[in-house]
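Input:
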Amino acid sequence: MATTAITAEREHYLNTDYGIRSWLLTTDHKRIALLYLVTITLFFFIGGFFALLIRLELLTPAGDLVQADTYNKLFTMHGQVMIFFFLIPSIPAVLGNFLIPMMVGAKDLAFPRINLLSWYLLVVAGILMLHCIITGGVDSGWTFYTPFSTAFSNTKVIEAGVAIFIAGFSSILTGLNFVVTIHRMRAPGLTWSRLPLFVWAHYATSIIQLLGTPVLAITLLLVVFERAFNLGIFDPTRGGDPLLFQHLFWFYSHPAVYIMILPSMGVVAEIIPCFSRKRIFGYSAVAMSSIAIAVFGFLVWAHHMFVAGISLYSAMIFSILSYLVAVPSAIKVFNWTATMYKGSIHFNTPMLYAMGFIGLFTMGGLTGLFLAALGIDVHVTDTYFVIAHFHYIMVGGAVMGYLGGLHFWWPKISGRMYPEWLGKFAALTVFLGFNLTFFPQFILGYLGMPRRYWQYPAEFQVLNVFSTAGSTILAVGYVLPMIYFLWSMRYGKVADANPWGAAGLEWKTSSPPPTSNFEEVPEVTWEAYNYDEIPAPEEVPVG
Amino acid sequence: MADSPLTIEHEEGLQHQFVDVEQQRNAVSLGMWLFLATEIMFFGGMFCAYLVYRYWYYNEFAAGSRSLDLTWGTLNTAVLICSSLTVALGVRAAQLGKRKLLIVLLVLTLLFGLTFLGIKGIEWYAKYTEHHIPGASFDASDLIKDYPQIPIDPAHEQIYFSLYFAMTGLHALHMIIGVGIFSFILFYAWKGRYTPAYHTPVEISGLYWHFVDIVWIYLFPLLYLIDRRPLR
Amino acid sequence: MFDNFPLWPARASTGAGNVDALFIFLVLLAGFMSLAIFTMIVVFALKYRNRPGHGAQQIEGSVPLEVTWSAVPLAIFMVIFGWGAVIYFQERTPPRGADEIYVVAKQWMWKLEHEQGQREINELHVPVGRDVKLIMTSQDVIHSFYVPAFRIKQDVLPGRYTTAWFRATKPGVYHLFCAEYCGTAHSGMIGQIVVLEPALYQAWLSGGTTSGSLAANGETIFQQLGCPTCHRFDIQGRGPNLQGIFDRPVLLEDGRTVVADENYIRESILSPSAKIVNGFKPIMPTFQGLVSEEQLAALVAYIKSLTPPSGTAKLAPPAKSQEPRE
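Output:
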């Protein structure tokens, strides 16, 4: 369905209505997805800016760029902004919102107005967070450990806590919308076993969002109450237990990391089959692994507390459970790799991101095995080893999955192609910059450099310099897509309905799709990833 | 099987993303149950804190519990249970299309809800005058005097009252939201919006109200009835 | 240049080697797995790259393969778990007869006190080859006592004692870091562990302050606070006889039995109503706010030193013998 008309342009969701009100009051899931895209991109660069300042400070052992209190605020707000205002929404709110109704053959999500409310909640939370940042910031660490956050910090803990509380509701409502949509609004013939794995991944993610986020909400609320009304729940001088906070906090915050990684695993599960021209290897295993990760993910929280003062026996239980949760992730990695076996591999940008994801997620996941080992964790917890581990997963994994997904579905979202060579260049820049930034941190961690250190002993400097150098390269890799995506919306090559020859209902509608997604409600009679039936595009599109 | 969405007739209250009213009702119902599951997790965090501290500081919890007025607490429990009855009957009235009955029951529900909140206010005020609000003005000496048989650490006593205010406060907030929701439901009922074919908002609001009631059914014994045996 | 660019931390305790062994095993395992996956991806990408005459072959899956690559990793993981758990068990089980150091952490410094009475700030002198047990608490927020060269780390909490232990193997000076974010000067809350040959350590000890041993100070405080009024050693007083209670089970009036460890002693002083000994009335007043952490440490050390009533209670801590470690 070529759309190179010069005069009467076909009507689709982008041009069906103009004006700010048509965007701010929209209930179209696709427009809401774009609203989210703008919002989280803004927060990504704010959080990234804090990261750059941190890396600049850490160029030298002395604290000479900012003051100690400022540095403490920088790492706190970097974590809060990146986690709650970028990573947690990212793929679900942008790609999930845009694609899930189409992938299940529906006209919209189950509750479009609640979807818009979700976005507004994030915006309100974001404004509050920005206000907090601008008027002094918060220095409790994103983990808000008590009694420091409740009784000792002199910064805006309440404001940050309330902002994150509100953002949490945005997350809960998105999860609620997805679960109901997937359960109740699948097109005729679209059984669970015919669903794209992207949908399975978001289903699992949504379960976590629904059940886990409220626990964070109550925990932060109790911290806010404690500070505001001088309650005593976390006050050791009144008998409050510092470990109670940690248990409540990590009960959410561990599953939260699966909120951040499962969607990008779903993205990868769409990209690899498409650019290998092959059905995914082990569909059921991958689908069930998503569910297993969600379930087991709720059982391992205290592996963040091995040296916190929990009992020996608790620690052993949580360690063994943590190894169990690693198995489904390993299964996925093997299945994705096996999908490439005897495929017909195309090296488009999304595929580069997906391959990079597999490599970096594998490394990050393997270092998780180190941390789950009790004897090792004692040495490396609270050091740069942990920082490296989670950045490998969240940046090398989740963010690369997000970028891969953006590139893969960009033609569908915008009706345009991005410039392919720039896409490849940015992907490689991100991959190289990322590794240079974070691999040295594994070594720093084992050497003993603790986290959250504004100044450090001189023998750690060389590795820190490598890390900072990498971060500047990484920054370039992130800025490039923003520029060329914007460029492509006006000057990019016009895209077909299915430029990649991909499977999935979303590719059966035009690019960009009409507001109601489908001219006719589809009826599904085929299995997912039916690449034996879909011809490869004759020409690899280049920008 | 499905008609083109352009040709389907739009029934009253059917939103465009749904194929038919059946699908809409199922989706909305599932959505509310999921939301209630999140509320269970939300209150659950506080119940966990309560469990831990009650186990550690049982004496202080027992003494604090005794200091609550059992009459008001029992009355409030009865009020809420009655309000759940009126809600359930209201849903039934909506199913049967009995608009006037529905309006009466909704008004009663709101009255019960406001009564509950009023009594809660009275109880909180009593805690204020007794200096049982945690913080600088907290004073547990009256408890130590009244219950010499119970060894009380005044510092730990604050934890009981912190949880008391946090739990009943959050519950009251949910009640206020419930009152707000039912005010809207009452308004639309008065306008004749609900019919036997379409009364989903009444049903799901009823679910929410029942949930808030059930939370109180747990809060009441946990806060008021820790140990009411006669002291030696 | 490599003096300033270490790639491996110093190894200065008996436990460090065990930790390093597991770490190296994991590095090799992770390195092998990463390399395997990377290689497979690159090989598949190149070997099966899209070109004329090379279409994709649809493969549904393979149950035997799924089972294999689930079971084998699981088995390997269980091995790693077991190995790590054994190391952790050793790390968290201080041997009997260890030298005890009481540590009080506060924003933003470490205060350490030897049993013999020496006090140090941000520095800890210990002898080579002796077990050292740290009994730690915080005056304010959570801190964490971290010595990379020993591979030990333990959070230090307000309101209770946590413990850690090590046996140093190499003389030298090693980093002490606070590893739990605690505010402005978290990264300044650092110090050093000075490991000395036994002879030099003795010299250092005897050159120290003469303010008396920890237990002796504790006895003084015990008298000053009027504890003997109820806790008598000669006849049954209104409070339990404290001689020999340390590390022994105590029956409480609600039927529970607890072990009288450092945390029990500390809690009994600060919040006596929490655990009432069977047969006694809850009349002990609280000393919360009336004793500092240092005084509490001294009291704990004193009570620990009280031997069971069979003769006169010794004031000095009994001579310590340490079994040689395997």
